[in-house]
Design brief:
The complex is a heterodimer of chains A (243) and B (287).
Chain A: E1 27-38, E2 61-64, H1 69-81, H2 90-99, E3 103-107, H3 110-118, E4 124-128, H4 129-137, E5 142-145, E6 152-157, H5 166-176, H6 179-189, E7 192-193, H7 202-206, H8 211-216, H9 223-241
Parallel strand pairs in A: 2-3, 2-4
Antiparallel strand pairs in A: 1-4, 1-5, 1-6, 1-7
Chain B: H1 7-33, E1 36-38, E2 44-47, H2 50-57, H3 59-91, H4 95-106, H5 113-124, H6 129-137, H7 150-174, H8 178-186, H9 191-202, H10 204-219, H11 223-229, H12 236-246, H13 250-282
Antiparallel strand pairs in B: 1-2
Classes of the chains: A alpha/beta (243), B mainly alpha (287).
C-alpha cells in the first residue's frame, strides 16, 4: 500500500532517486548493473558497454541468461545503447548476437558467474555492484566500473502490505532507512545507501553508486513494460542462444 | 454363495490408490490445463488449441523436441554398449567377486544425481580434471569445451544412467542357461558365433528393457541438462521448467509435458512390439 514519506522519520533524508514513482515505500538500498572485471588480467579499465565486444576479450566474456534479472537488465541496457529500450528489444538482441562468439559461456546464476571468474574462464562481465562486492569478499580480484552509458539501478525495497500490522510495518521500513542501518548494509553486503546522510569510506564509495550524482544517474526501468514483454523477449533470447 | 473379493484386488488396491492420486489425477489436471488459454494478466481462460499449435508450428520447439530425442537415443546406445560389456564381464567373473563388482558398478546410485552433476562440472570445465589430463598427456593442444555443450550432457547422463542398464542386463545374463553355450561350442561354433547366435538373442529382453528404461529416464531428465548444459542446451525438460517458473505459462508447460509423455508412451509401445516379436524369433521352437 502507498506510503506517505512524511510519515517516515528518515523520509526527508532520502535521495530523490530512492522514491518510488507510484507512491509506494522507497528503496532502502541501491545496487547497480555495471561492468565487473578481473583487475589482474585487465590493465586498462573498461569505460563503456561497447568494451565487452572488444576483440581482446574474445572468449572471455561471461554472458548472463535472460532468466536472471541482471541478464535481463543487461539486454535492456544494450537495447537502449543501440536506440531501443523497453518498447523495442530488437537492437539489444542484434547486439547480443554479435557478442555471442565472444562469450566464454552463458550462465544463469551468480555462483556460476563467480566460478567462471575464479577459474579465469571469464575476465569481464555485466553484473551488479552487490555481487561484485561479494566476490571481492571471497577473495577474487574483481573491480566494478559504471559504464558511461549509465548503470541500471536495482531498487531494493520493503513494502507495507494492507491488512497486516501496518503501523509496525511502517516503523520497520523507517528502521531500514536509518543511516546506521544503511551503513551496515553497505559494509556487509555492498548495497548502496539511499539515505544521503550516510557516510562511507573511500574504498566503499568506489564500488557502489554513492553520492547525489551517481545515484541520480541510475536508470530506472519501466517495469510495467518489462513485465508485459518478458515472455516474448525470453522466447526470442532462447532462439538466439540455442545451439 | 457368498462372493469374496479375489485376494489380489486387496493387494493391488493400496498401490492403485496411490497411483491414481499421485499420478493419474495430476496428469489429468495437466491435460485440462494444456487446453486452457494463458491470460496475460495471469490465470487461465477457456478452451484453446493454441499451445499445441504453437509447439508444432514453431521450428524452435520442434528442434528442442528433436534434440531431446537424439540425445536420449545416443545416451541409451552408449549405455547399452558399455553396460552390456560390464554386465557380461561381471556375470562371467569368479563367483566370489561377482557381488563386489556388481556393487562397484551400482555405487553411483548411492549418491544423488545432483551431487554427481556438480562433480562433472569440476571434471568437464576448461580447467577441469579431464582437460588437464588430456593436455598434459599431449592428446590435445587446446582445452576441450565440454561444459555447457550437448556432448557434456551426454557424458554426464551416461554416467548417471549406466548403473540401471548394468543391473538389468546382469540379471538377464546371469539367468541364461550356460548349457546352451556349451551345446553351441560342442556343435562347432566359435566364441564369437556363440555370442552372436545364442547369448545375444537370449538376452534381448534385457537389452530392450534396459534401453527402454534409460531412454525414458533421459528423455525427461532435468538436473543434468540444466546444470551441465546451461542455457544454451535447450531440451524439453529445461523448457518445461522455463515456461513454468520463469514465464509462468503453465498451460503451455502442461502441453509440453503431455507431448513428452505421449512420446514416451509411443516409444514404449513400439519397444513392446519389438520385444514380443524378437522373443518368438529367438525361440523358434516355442519352448
Amino acid at each position: 500500500m502507498p506510503i506517505d514519506l512524511k510519515e517516515l522519520s528518515n523520509g526527508k533524508d532520502l535521495y530523490d532517486a530512492a522514491k518510488d514513482p507510484n507512491g509506494y515505500a522507497p528503496a532502502y538500498a541501491f545496487s547497480a548493473l555495471g561492468i565487473i572485471y578481473n583487475e589482474e588480467k585487465i590493465s586498462t579499465p573498461p569505460t563503456s558497454w561497447k568494451d565487452l565486444w572488444k576483440d581482446e576479450y574474445k572468449g572471455k566474456v561471461a554472458l548472463v541468461d535472460i532468466s536472471n534479472s541482471f541478464g535481463l537488465q543487461f539486454l535492456l541496457a544494450v537495447a537502449k545503447m543501440n536506440g531501443g529500450g523497453e518498447h523495442d528489444i530488437q537492437p539489444g538482441l542484434d547486439a547480443i548476437r554479435e557478442l555471442l562468439p565472444n562469450a566464454a559461456a552463458v550462465v544463469k546464476s551468480t555462483p556460476e558467474v563467480g566460478t567462471l571468474f575464479a577459474q579465469e574462464e571469464a575476465i569481464i562481465a555485466a553484473y551488479d555492484t552487490g555481487y561484485a562486492f561479494t566476490f571481492r569478499q571471497q577473495g577474487q580480484p574483481i573491480k566494478f566500473v559504471t559504464p558511461q552509458e549509465g548503470a541500471i539501478g536495482t531498487f531494493i525495497n520493503a513494502q507495507v502490505v494492507k491488512g497486516g500490522n501496518e503501523e509496525l510495518a511502517k516503523k520497520f521500513v523507517d528502521f531500514l532507512l536509518r543511516p546506521d542501518i544503511q551503513k551496515q548494509f553497505a559494509e556487509k553486503n555492498g548495497y548502496a545507501p539511499t539515505n544521503r546522510t550516510v557516510e562511507l569510506s573511500e574504498e566503499l564509495q568506489a564500488v557502489m553508486p554513492y553520492g547525489e550524482e551517481a545515484v541520480g544517474r541510475l536508470i530506472r526501468l519501466n517495469n510495467d513494460l518489462v513485465n508485459e514483454n518478458k515472455a516474448a523477449w525470453t522466447e526470442e533470447w532462447n532462439k538466439l542462444i540455442s545451439q | 454363495m457368498k462372493r469374496r473379493i479375489p485376494p489380489h484386488w486387496i493387494l493391488i488396491a493400496p498401490g492403485l490408490l496411490v497411483f491414481a492420486v499421485a499420478f493419474l489425477i495430476p496428469i489429468g489436471r495437466l491435460a485440462v490445463m494444456s487446453f486452457q488459454e494463458n491470460l496475460p494478466e495471469g490465470g487461465t481462460g477457456g478452451f484453446v488449441w493454441d499451445h499445441y499449435v504453437k509447439f508444432f508450428s514453431d521450428p524452435h520447439y520442434l528442434r528442442i523436441f528433436g534434440r531431446t530425442l537424439v540425445i536420449s537415443a545416443v545416451v541409451s546406445f552408449i549405455c547399452l554398449v558399455m553396460g552390456y560389456c560390464l554386465a557380461y564381464g561381471i556375470s562371467r567373473a569368479k563367483e566370489g567377486r561377482k557381488l563386489l563388482l556388481l556393487m562397484i558398478a551400482a555405487m553411483p546410485l548411492l549418491t544423488s544425481a545432483t551431487i554427481r552433476n556438480f562433480g562433472w562440472i569440476i571434471i568437464l570445465s576448461r580447467k577441469g580434471l579431464l582437460n588437464e589430463l588430456l593436455l598434459s598427456v599431449g592428446v590435445i593442444k587446446e582445452p576441450l569445451s565440454l561444459l555447457y555443450t550437448p556432448t557434456g550432457v551426454v557424458i554426464a547422463l551416461v554416467h548417471v544412467l549406466l548403473p540401471y542398464m548394468v543391473l538389468i542386463l546382469y540379471s538377464v545374463l546371469e539367468g541364461l542357461d550356460r548349457n546352451l553355450e556349451s551345446a553351441a561350442a560342442n556343435l562347432g561354433a566359435s566364441r564369437f558365433h556363440t555370442f552372436r547366435l545364442v547369448t545375444l538373442p537370449l538376452s534381448m529382453p534385457g537389452i530392450i528393457a534396459g534401453t527402454l528404461l534409460v531412454f525414458s529416464i533421459s528423455l525427461s531428465f532435468f538436473v543434468t541438462p540444466s546444470l551441465i548444459g546451461g542455457p544454451k542446451v535447450q531440451l524439453m525438460a529445461t523448457e518445461i521448467y522455463n515456461q513454468t517458473i520463469n514465464l509462468l505459462n503453465w498451460p503451455y508447460a502442461s502441453a509440453l509435458a503431455l507431448i513428452l509423455l505421449a512420446a514416451v508412451l509411443i516409444v514404449t509401445n513400439l519397444y513392446n512390439r519389438a520385444l514380443s516379436r524378437s522373443r518368438t524369433e529367438a525361440n523358434p521352437f516355442h519352448v
